[in-house]
Amino acid sequence: MLEQVLYVLSWIMLTVGGFFVLVGGIGALRLPNFYTRMHAASVTDTIATFLVLGGLLLQAGLTIATVKLIAILVFLLLTGPTASYALANAALLSGVKSNATFRKVNGKGSKSGAGQETSVNQETDASQETSASQENNEEQSK
Amino acid sequence: MSMYVIVSIAILVTMTLALARALKGPSVYDRVLAVNMFGTKTVLLLAVVAFFYGRPDFLDLALAYALINFVGILAVLEFFQSQRNDDEEQAKEQEE
Predict the structure, then answer these.
(1) Does B62 contact A44 at a Cβ distance shorter than 8 Å?
(2) How many whole angstroms from its chain centre is CA A51?
(3) How confident is the model at residue B1 (pLDDT cuts 50, 70, 90)?
(4) Which ipTM value was assigned to this complex?
(5) Which residues of chain A does B65 touch, with a Cβ-Cβ cutoff of 8 Å?
C-alpha cells in the first residue's frame, strides 16, 4: 500500500517536474528581454530541480543513491541562485537594460497596469507621448 | 518505467531550446544564461538516466558535472567582466 502511494507520488512529481522544465525552456527561448529570460531559467533551476530529484528520491528508497541525490539537490539549490545573482549583477553592471520602464512626459505619467505591459505596448505609448509633446510645443510656439 | 522516458524527453527538448537561445542570444549574457541552463539540465538528465538504466553510478557523474558547471559559469562571467574593464581602461587611456 505504502509502496503504491510512494510510486504514484513520485510519478506525479516527475511529471510535474518535466512540465516545469518544459515551461522554463520555452520561456527562456521566447520571452522578450534578458531579465525575463533569466526568470524563466530560474524556474527550471529551482522548482523543476526539486520536483525531478524529489521524484527520483522517492523511487530510490534508502540506499547510497539517496545520499547522492540529496547531495546533488542541495548543491544545485545552493549554486543555482548564486550563479543567477552573478549573471544578473554582471549584466546590470555592463548596462543590459530591461525595456520595462515607465516614462513621464510633461508631468503626465502613463500609469497603465502594474508593469505588465509588453515592449510593443510601451513603444506605442512612447510614440503617442512624443506626438502629444510635439503638439504641446506647437501650441506654445503659437 | 515510462515516467523516466517522459521526463527525459522533456529535459532533452528544453536542452534543445536552451541551445537555440545560446545560438540566437543577442548579448553575451544570454548565451551564458543558456549554457548555464544547459548544464543544469544535463545534471537532471544524468540523474534520470541513472534510474532509467538502473545504474546508480551515473549519479557521481551528475554531481561532478554540477560542480564543474557552477565553477565554469563563474569563471566565464569573471572573464567577460575583466575583459570589459580592460576595454574601458584602454578607452580612457586613448581619450587622455
Answers:
(1) no
(2) 17
(3) low
(4) 0.84
(5) none
**Total-model pTM:** 0.76
CB within 8 Å: B21 and A29: yes
**A111 exposed, middle or buried (CB, 10 Å; 0-12, 13-18, 19+)?**
exposed
CB contact under 8 A, A86 and B73: yes
Q: For position A115, what pLDDT does the model report?
A: 44
Instruction: Give the ranges where chain A is alpha helix by DSSP (H).
Output: 2-30, 34-43, 49-60, 64-93, 119-141
- Taking the CB of residue B52, how many other CB atoms lie within 10 A of it? 16
Domains of chain B plus CATH, in order, are 2-95 (1.10.287)
Task: Give the number of other Cβ atoms within 10 Å of residue A133's Cβ.
Answer: 13
pLDDT digit string, tens, across residues B37-91 = 999 999 999 999 998 988 888 889 999 999 999 999 999 888 888 887 787 788 8
Cβ contacts of B53-57, under 8 Å, gap ≥ 24: B56/A63, B56/A64, B56/A65, B56/A68
Chain B interface includes A45 (CB < 8 A): yes
Instruction: State the nearest Cα–Cα gap between A14 and chain B, in angstroms.
Output: 7
Min Cα separation B96/chain A (Å): 22
Q: How many CB atoms lie within 10 A of CB A117?
A: 17
More confident site: A62 or A142: A62
Nearest in space to A81 (alpha carbons), one of A51, A55, A45, A105:
A45
Question: Which residues of A fall within a CB distance of 8 Å from B3?
Answer: 10-11, 14-15, 55
Domain residue ranges of chain A, discontinuous segments joined by +: 2-93, 104-141
